[in-house]
């Protein structure tokens, strides 16, 4: 069965057109054709589908080059064969440069059928290539729209680390306009320290060791420093060679802040802001196994807290506790651990502090207490204090108990003294 061939013949000589048809039919084609010989007729004919156009090089008032120009202007990709009775090599080369698929002499029409077959096959390949390119373009556009809808910054680089693309979230994060990142390296996009961190992470990942994620801090377009996790994955080309790297940035600033807050709350007293009992116990255990002896322990109890709560309210009692925490924190050194260990009880661990240094610390504490009471005349703070010194880990717990006993002994003595004063007043 012959193959249908729709041929548009641009030829002013009907006999020559008939010879072309005969040659094609002898070559095994079922030829359906139309002949035109002017620019207008060609333009009108191009509204119909054609498998091939065979055009005479020279015609009265028209030419093959002009016909080819019309074809290109209309955006038609139809195999175009130029044919001529007699023309030089220079003219044939000009026709090929202008876009003709082949050039055949009328005196050698035996070349016509192979030329038509080859031109149609090449046109089919071009159409398939364009179709694949269009499908790829549509897929890429879909992927770009998809990643642009994601709030997570995403980017992808070539094997040399140059940016190929990103989503809107990445542009907004970095503070770049669309397209500004193209063909720029990570060192042109990110701060040097972060770019170096990212590069080291990628080198480690490519060597097959280490994770494909790592943390860093990035300066955003608004100048704010944000904690990030970088995720990355290598993608392959069709030949299984490395095509580049796809990366994503996950903002973990809020998580980091929450972790810091939880860590703070786990070790600090909410009311006073100093360390809590849990942290104090951990430090006590750590010091017992360390080399910072002698270690002195100071135990402190806030006097009259219940009376203040009963007479002035719990807000006043809370203020008194904050007052006590401030006095203790200011009186001791930065390396000392000051903690609230009970409702009205505080404690301090003083590493590398012997009895002599402890006495100096007690004097500082009394001085700060007096100064603070002078500044807070409306809410006088009274503290019962006990202290002891341990010279090694075996003595530490015993010294803690001794300091606690001395503190309660002072507190009891003050209560008895106050009770005696009240009794004396009643007797008098």
TrEMBL record:
- Residue ranges of domain PAS in the record: 139-193
The UniProt record lists the PAC domain at 212-264
Q: Where is the PTM 4-aspartylphosphate found along the chain? A: 56
The Response regulatory domain extends over 6-121
The domain of life for this entry's organism is: Bacteria
Polar residues biased stretches: 416-428
| Family matches, as PROSITE patterns | GGDEF, PAC, PAS, RESPONSE_REGULATORY
Enumerate the residue ranges of region (Disordered): 409-428
Q: Name one Pfam family in it.
A: PAS
Q: Which SUPFAM superfamilies match?
A: CheY-like (SSF52172), Nucleotide cyclase (SSF55073), PYP-like sensor domain (PAS domain) (SSF55785)
| InterPro entries in UniProt | Biofilm_reg_signaling, CheY-like_superfamily, GGDEF_dom, Nucleotide_cyclase, PAS, PAS-assoc_C, PAS-like_dom_sf, PAS_fold
* Segments forming domain GGDEF: 293-423
Question: What keywords sit in the KW lines?
Answer: Phosphoprotein
Indicate what this protein is called per its UniProt record: Diguanylate cyclase
Organism, by scientific name, is Geomonas propionica
Q: From which lineage does this chain's organism come?
A: Bacteria, Pseudomonadati, Thermodesulfobacteriota, Desulfuromonadia, Geobacterales
